[in-house]
Amino acid sequence: MRYIRRVSAPDGRSTRHSVHAVARRTEALVNALTGHGPDGPAPEEVARLLREHGESEPLTVGPGDVAELRTAALALREVFAATGTDAAAAALNRLLARGTGPLRLTSHGGDSPWHPHLDRADDAPWGEWFLASSCLCLTVLLWERQRPPGGLCAAPGCGDVYLTLGSGVPRRYCSRRCATRERVAAHRRARALPGGGRGGADRC
Question: Which positions fall inside the Zinc finger CGNR domain (predicted)?
Fold first, then answer.
């Protein structure tokens, strides 16, 4: 069971509960929890990421919590792996039906701005909280933009998830590093072909 997370700010406002902030936390945790082999990262690493994304003390994460968070992260990858808006919406609908409770508003006892939750209570287990809060923010992103909220990196050997928060041409890579590596590889492959053709560049 997790502790209730509390946030206070001098002006009474916080961006920690914004859709984009929660989406960034989802992206970071999904990548961390599904990219460390079959057992996932150490509890200390997960706790560090939670603090980096606004979760405050007291904060306790144990091996059982990591296992629950990892299960949620693997389920959330289905949304990022979906091809097209309809498929992403269907994946979110499955998760919303399976792993969330009724929509409610909370201020965590007055220590944060009012914001929506889909978990059962403010002290719900980490895995339930993560799945519910991530489903909510990804649902809003798809609703607002009418496009998938993210995707899986196309770079061979990467597989990280990424968010599509901007406008313009849809992304294919999680970072400029992966995009540059693939662009260089494509250029080398093209030069190796008869005639030394030129490869195209993908937007990162």
Answer: 152-189
Residue with tokens 């693997």: 74
Give the model's pLDDT for residue 57: 81
Nearest Cα neighbor of 151 from 87, 95, 201 is 87
3-state secondary structure 110-176: CCCCCEEECCCCCCCCHHHHHHHHHHHHHHHHHHHHCCCCEEECCCCCCCCEEECCCCCCCCCCCCH
pLDDT means over runs of 10, the chain (204 residues): 41 66 96 84 96 89 96 97 97 91 89 89 92 96 95 93 85 88 68 61 49
> Reduced to 3 states, what is the DSSP secondary structure of residue 92?
helix
Domain residue extents for the chain: 19-149
Tokens 């690493």 — which residue?
A: 45
Residue with tokens 């895995």: 127
**19-149: CATH homologous superfamily?**
Jann2411-like domain (1.10.3300.10)
